[in-house]
Amino acid sequence: MNMKHSKILTVVFAIGVCFTAFAQDKSSDAIKTDDRSYVKDFINEKAELVYRVDKQDNVATFKELSGRTVILKTALGTDMEVSHDSTRDKFFLKDGANKWRAVRTYLMKDDTEGAIKEMRKIVYPLIPLVVLNKNTFDASEYIDQFISALLETKRYVELTDFVKELPLGAAEESIINNATDVALALANNGNTKDALAIVSKIELKEKTQFNASEGVLKVLAVLRNKGMKSDVYMLYAKFGAVSENPHAQQFKLWSIYCDIAMGNRTSAELALKKVKMKQSDTAFSLYKMIMGDYVLSDAKNKDHKRALSSYSEGIVFGKFTEEWMSELLYKTGMSYKAIGNFVASNEIFEQIKAIYSDSPFAEKGAKEIVKIEKKKVVDKGMSHDDDDDDDDDDDE
Amino acid sequence: MKFKKYILTKTAMLVVAMVAFSNGTYAQEAVNMSTTMLKDEASNLANQKRYLEARPFIAELIKRIEGLDADDKSVADLRNSLDQFYYFEAYGYLQEYDASGSTNKALVAKAIDGFSKVIEKYPQGEFVVESIKMKANCYEAIDQFEKAVETRGMLLKKPFVAMITAKERYELVKRICESLFNSRKWKLGKPWFERLLSNSKNIDDKVFAASALIQGSFAERNFEEAKKYIPYMVHNNIARNDPALNVEFIKAGDFLANSGKVSDATVFYNLVLGKEAMIANFEKFIEIEKNKIAEIKKYNSKSPLIVDHNNKIKTIESFLKAARSLPSLTADMMARNAANFMRTERNYESFWAYYQLMKKFPEHQNIEDFYFASIVCALNVDKLDVMYEISNEYLEKFKEGGYRKDVEMGIVQYHLKKATSSKKKEDYKEFFAKAKKFLDDNGPEAGQSRDVIFLLGKTWFDMKNYKELIRTFNTYLKKKDSDGNLFDESILCESLMYWVGMGYMATSDFEKAMKIFSKMVERFPVGLYAEDGAYRKGVAAFGAGKFEVARDTLESFIETFPKSSLRGEVEFFLGDIYANNNNIEKALKHYLEVENHTKGRTFTDNAYIQTAKLLHNTAEQMQDAKDIKKIVDFYVGENPKEDSLKSLKEDAAKYAKLDRPANSLLLRLEIAVMDSYIKKHPKGNLSEASYNRAKAFEKLGKPADALLEFEHAISKYGSNVKDDAIDRMILEYKKIYEQNHKKLVASVKFLEELKNNRQLLEDMVGVPAKRYRYFQENPNIDLQLYESFKRDRRFGVNLYDDKTPIDELLSGYNAQLKKYPAKPVDVFTKLFEEAQSKKDVVLGYRLMMGLDFIGNPVKTKKSFSDEDLKKASVRTLVWIGSLSKKINPNAARKAYEEGRKREEFEYEVDILFAHAELELEQGNFKKSLELYTAIENEFPSDERAARAVILKGDSNAKLYEAQKSKKSEEAQKYFKAAVKEYESVLRSPNWRGDAYAEALYKLGKLMSKGDFSNQEKINKAVMYYERCYLGYASCYDWTGKALLGEVELKQSLNMDKQTKDELKNRCREFVENALNKSSPEYSDVKRKMETL
Questions:
Q1: Which of B163, B301, B349 best tests the A interface by mutation, with the highest count of A CBs <10 A?
Q2: pLDDT of residue A24
Q3: Contact at 8 Å (CB) between B529 and B520?
Q4: Which of A33, A342, B549, B882 could, after both became Cys, cross-link B541 (CB 3.0–4.6 A)?
Q5: How many whole angstroms separate alpha carbon B725 and alpha carbon B242?
Q6: Residue A26: its chain B contacts at CB < 8 A?
């Protein structure tokens, strides 16, 4: 069967459920009047889990959270301790499929509001269980869809409180990603305080957490660009200290970036000396941008040519999809401008406008574009009007 | 989808009752079957999705239903449910099409017919939505994309749109987009892609839509449109990595680069993901999808989402396959980017890009190009050591390389750059050695030799080492290269001659410069320097005083190079040449042309200022009204628009008719020219224009207007630290004020007396000798009045009866007196206070200098900071230096150094004199010597140059005196140098007079120092003293000194009586001449005479 025909037939039967891809005809921009914290509403609701012993399903109810250990109460009334890293038993939500079916029914009818109501009943009791590793109990599938629905309906108050309630320090990648999605939405909507609070709760110390680094970096980037350099500095330093994390280098570099921005040139210099980078490293262009910043942070000697050498190396060896690329280009453009190479600076500012139109550096760059009146012709003879260079303007 | 069994059951019952069996093979079998059997068979097959096999049974059922009596109500109900039979029958055709290898398009056509029946006959039916979708799929299968889109689009219109959910609507748009994307129907797809882009909240879908819109725009060469979607390209997802899209970016970049749109090309080149990057990304995406499937399977191993993800994986795999099949574009893309960086002057990126290429792809076919580009770029961004290293690598690696000469030339440049930045002699030495070696080795054979000559010439020129420049290049002109070719016979000759000429120009050896430029343009009439050389030849001839040659050269320059960028300068020089020859009209014509041919401010400004000066000077020399009328008519033209020019033209005609002295018209024209300049060039040198206006007013007998003009200009332009004309006005103000006030008062008194004193009037009108004597005895009266009596007919005998001309003059003088400004001290104080209130520091300092200059200093701080110095004009710095030096010589030095740094011509010589004087006072004779030498070299035509030479002699004399042993080599060196300086004064006829006398006296003094055993020196001393007081007897400052010098010298040598008597007589002669009382040594000589 050829592929084309295979598509013809399969399309008839394929049905999927996906939130974010939905194009909503109804506007979801209006602030929800019922947007509030629901944590207290479910404070007494305990999750019921099922685990299997000798092909027999056993029920256990959540009792309490002790550090990173979940204590469940078995049907026999005994306590069962399940630690964060335990893999002995595999737990499922009791009657989970049936409970979620109600959610799905609403979703099939495009009734997100109804779906959220159903979800709350399932999701809120799962909050403390987030500390368990995915192989023992995976709460993320439910929480992910719940957060997507809340984000879609812009219930930011509920989202904020819900995520703050999650024990993020012990949570794995998928839960942290949910938290950073929320923090990003909050930060983009101007609520940088809560965004910072959420991201401050995150830890990236374990292997199961490292993959959430990209999301964390995104949130920190928004906060950094909103001027919260001293606030994010500590977090960058904290995450950068875990050398096993493949993103540690990037966190470290950003902490140096903030250090320079805050005027701490000496400590930045010391930190930069310890950085070892290859041109093929992902963060190499970031490193070069920071090196350029460091050069220009010398108030007494702003050596734009030296900074340019560093910035341009970053551009050539960096990927234009990197988050910092618009900033790197902007800084490069500014240095070209400072040395009077307006052809290059204009070119760069135009490029930022074309490629990174959403970046704050696009607008900043556009303001730096200068009108080049004439290009001086250099011939092999002596200049005849050396003294006319700066006064050849037209009066009329 | 399943057959609805109840429908089939119901159908079977009815058909059994009403229809007989028919026959056929498969169909025949169906025909022969009972309706129940028919139903069961169709049902079984359909539920097994064997629609093809079910089709004959369904067809038979349809036939039987359609054959029933339509009027029967139960039949009508049955017919209403026929849509499902049509649907599955059509579906069966599709299955057959698929099973038979997807070639029989007739089957698809039958399927389309079937689905169409459902859509047309049952638009409200349960199968209509699926039928529309299937019909669209059918059209796609037979490549009828427009119809497919049209059909699928039906679902987004009434009545069908109500039958699908929002999610389905979105999926439908996406489906349409995918179909159009796969078939690359960009034009047809544009509205759909735009719809998806604006409606989607999913970034993957947005990027997909943007990719389609970009590729569509590329197809139409609408690159501007494509740029709108570029911001979506920063996301790294499947659509973004589509190899086709990335290839399109390359193509677009190439197209734009070839069309010269380098900036736009750069944007698209930057978007290209390399093969390796795409492969890595696709592998990552597949991994992500697989993980998602594994997650889904944990909960529901039959989830329909798994199909979606599997389909996605298939799509990614097809992309991955396409990416793998691409050639590795990394090096080419890097080369493209590097070239584009270079074209857009992004020199630093260009360097790194080429350097990387060079290092990463040592085996690339273009490796030599990469090397060379890296070298050029490294030089551009001052990575000199890298450049040097790569250059040597290149020379080692490419023995027969095409860029060898360029690289060698690059090494020459490297040494120059290094020398320029280090300023070390040895670096320069290395540069000169390498450059000369290049010339010696390659000579005219290498095209780069001209560049090397340029570098050498320019470097010597910048270092002001003109001697070496001339010497070396003159040597080359006579030299042969390693192949025995004479430089003089090669193309290099032109460059060598040009630079030799420039050297001569810089050393003011205009004669030689003219000759060599002349020879050069003759031999290379279309050479690289032909235009410049012709211009230089004219300027050199002008400098050499060969005005005719200069004129002819520059006139011919205009003919040959009418559009030259030098035309404005040439017009200016021609103006000067004709002005020097008193060809006023032609001079004015050329000055007028300047602004039409230059964009430079300086030459336009100078042309106007020179015009004003020319008119001013002509007004002093020219009286003839007819000649003046010609000038006025020429400048003003036929029909002047401005009233002032109109009246000027009328007056010129009137004066010519009456033959009246008309020089005032030239002054009025001067004012008009300046007015026009101010109007046309608001950014011009307006203070200079004011100065000229004021000077013209003064000459016109309107000193009050002149002073008011000064005051206005000082106030308006005084804050410009670079404006020397302001300082000039401040320094001249008091003199103009006082002289003219005296003149006005004396003239008014004279005119009033004329009115009442008939005898005086008659003497003035009719007795030239008395008139002359009267004006000699009354020097304060305006000399214009004398001229009027001498030349103006209105001041003849008619004055005896008609005093109108006298009254008119009187009224003019009185009007001036009436508006005469307050005393200079009051005017300056007022301006100073205004400057202070405006916090105008520059003007404030200027006025403090002015007040000090006129003898009314204001209290000021004793020290000036670096910041203060920056806010002082050059002339003010001279003043600041004079204030500071008493307390802190170093502060004065700072002021003078700041003044020297400004490189402003007008008062630079004052700075040099003041500084040299300070050093002389401080005993730093070497420094003073250096400064006086600078005055002599840089300001040879300044009237104070003689003074500088004498002071140089003084400095050497002092250095000589400071030596312990007068016979030491060092002492003798200074002694000879002092003699040389003083004697050089005696060789310049222009300096006859005081300078001569001073030099003679000082030579005498120098010769009489120390060694009295040297008779030759003594004789010389006596000779110099005598030449001084005998030859320059009116130079009282020196004569007395010289006479005393001789007496004292001879006294110290124990002179005989005869000598003593001779000297006594000379002293007596000196004392008896009353004029010698002006000598400061008069009484000393008298006393000395008495002792003899």
A1: B349
A2: 35
A3: yes
A4: B549
A5: 70
A6: 166
Q: Is the pLDDT of residue B676 over 70?
A: yes
What residues of chain A, 257 to 316, have a C-beta less than 8 Å from chain B? 279, 305, 308-309, 311-313, 315-316
Q: How many residues does chain A have?
A: 396
Is residue A50 less than 8 Å (CB to CB) from chain B?
no
Closest CA relative to residue B1049, chosen from B1077, B1026, B1076: B1026
Closest-approach residue (CA) in chain A for B169: A23
Bridge-partner residues for A72, per DSSP?
Answer: A62, A80
Task: Cite the DSSP H helix spans in B1008-1091.
Answer: 1015-1031, 1036-1052, 1057-1072, 1082-1091
Instruction: Select the residue from B289, B348, B572 to test the A interface by mutation, using most A Cβ atoms within 10 A.
Output: B348
Is residue B931 helix, strand or coil?
helix
Long-range pairs for B434-441: beta carbons < 8 A, 24 or more residues apart: B436/B472, B438/B408, B438/B409, B438/B412, B439/B476, B439/B481, B439/B492, B440/B481, B440/B482, B441/B481, B441/B482
Give A22 to chain B, closest Cα distance, Å. Answer: 5
Helix (H) or strand (E) holding A318: none
A39 vs A125: CA distance, rounded Å: 9
Q: What is the pLDDT of residues A88-114, one digit of tens each?
A: 888 999 988 888 888 888 877 778 889
The tens digit of pLDDT for each residue in B804-852 reads 999 999 999 999 999 999 999 999 999 999 999 999 999 999 999 999 9
The secondary element (H helix, E strand) that includes residue B1004 is helix B994-1007
pLDDT digits (tens, 9 = 90+) for B941-989: 677 778 888 888 888 898 888 887 777 888 888 999 999 889 888 877 7
Token digits of residue A5: 């025909």
| Selection from A166, A143, A179, A153 nearest residue A28 by Cα | A153
- B724-756 helix and B804-818 helix, angle to the nearest 10 degrees: 140
Phi, psi of B661 (to 5 degrees): -60, 130
Q: Please provide the size of chain B in residues.
A: 1092
How distant, in Å, are the alpha carbons of B4, B27, B118 from that of B38? 14, 11, 22
Cα atoms found within 13 Å of the Cα of residue B956, Cβ hemisphere only: 24
For residue B705, the one-letter residue type is: D
User: What is the nearest CA distance from B138 to chain A, expressed in angstroms?
Assistant: 8
Tokens linked to B655? 């004066």
Q: What is the pLDDT averaged over residues B1003-1019?
A: 80
Share of chain B above pLDDT 70, in %: 95
Instruction: Look up residue B1058 and give its amino acid.
Output: Q
Q: Do B270 and A316 touch (CB under 8 A)?
A: no
The pLDDT score that the predictor gives to residue A382 is 57
Q: Which of A1, A108, A343 is facing B98, going by the closest CB pair?
A: A1
pLDDT bracket for residue A30 (50, 70, 90):
very low
Which residue in B141, B138, B103, B145 sits closest to B118, CA to CA? B138
What are all long-range contacts of A64-73, with beta carbons under 8 Å and residues at least 24 apart?
A64/A128, A65/A128, A65/A131, A65/A167, A68/A131, A68/A167, A68/A170, A69/A131, A70/A128, A70/A129, A70/A131, A70/A132
CA distance B470 to B455: 14
Distance CA A240, CA A232 (A): 12
Q: In this predicted structure, what is the pLDDT of residue B942?
A: 74
Give all strands (DSSP E) within chain A, no chain letters: 48-53, 56-66, 69-74, 79-83, 91-93
Is the backbone of residue B224 left (phi > 0), alpha (psi -120 to 50) or beta? alpha
Q: Which two tokens stand for residue B397?
A: 């690696």
Measured between alpha carbons, how far is residue B906 from residues A181, A391, B899 in Å?
71, 19, 11
Please say whether the beta carbons of B377 and B369 come within 8 A.
no
Number of helices (H), then strands (E), belonging to chain B: the values are 57, 0
Residues of A in contact with B129 (CB under 8 A): none
